[in-house]
Design brief:
Length: 191
């Protein structure tokens, strides 16, 4: 396993729609190695999720995990490592919430994005087993953010332009208010 370089805004791979993997491709040693590298890369960067194209591979593989005491996202409750291959998301209803998002591929910038509060996620796990999971709250936002990556969409494309800010300004004047709203969402709907 190794930590890979995270591609940043301007890299063409971030604007590609990643291709689906066939079952035999998923079982291949190089795909399993990619998944291991993605886990290491996400953890090293203290991210909440990572899509394969963020490490230069335009295939539909993403993962979500929030480790306890994540320094980048202290307001996010822990979420177990979930590897999703060829994910499909379906909103459970029309309810949305504004989430102040950042992205490992867009360093030093944050902005508010409307995300569905609850989604049904269908995907293959890393062993090729079909999974279905209902995801709510901040984790639902992370799933939507990562699937956007697989579609070649960055959070900047969905953010309200007036809400864009540097991490410095987020820390200085917006963090407390957003974290208060995030904790209320977690209390109301879960992770």
């Amino acid at each position: 396993m190794s930590v890979r370089d995270i591609r940043t805004i301007g890299d063409p791979v971030l604007r590609e729609r990643a291709r689906e993997l066939k079952p035999e491709e998923l079982r291949a040693a190089e795909t399993q190695s990619l998944i291991d590298d993605m886990i290491e890369t996400k953890r090293a960067a203290h991210g909440a999720g990572l899509a394969a194209n963020q490490v230069g591979e335009a295939v539909r593989v993403m993962l979500v995990e929030v480790e306890p005491d994540n320094p980048r996202y202290p307001y996010k409750p822990p979420f177990p490592l979930t590897v999703a291959v060829n994910p499909i998301l379906e909103p459970l209803d029309a309810e949305t919430v504004a989430i102040n998002e950042g992205c490992l591929s867009v360093p030093d910038l944050r902005g508010e994005v409307e995300r569905h509060v609850a989604v049904r996620a269908r995907f293959l796990d890393r062993d090729g087993v079909e999974r279905e999971r209902i995801v709510r709250g901040l984790a639902a936002g992370t799933f939507q953010h990562e699937v956007d990556h697989l579609d070649g969409v960055l959070f900047l494309d969905r953010a309200e332009p007036r809400t864009l800010m540097t991490w410095e300004h987020y820390e200085r004047g917006h963090r407390d208010e957003f974290e208060r709203r995030a904790r209320e969402l977690v209390e109301r709907v879960g992770s």
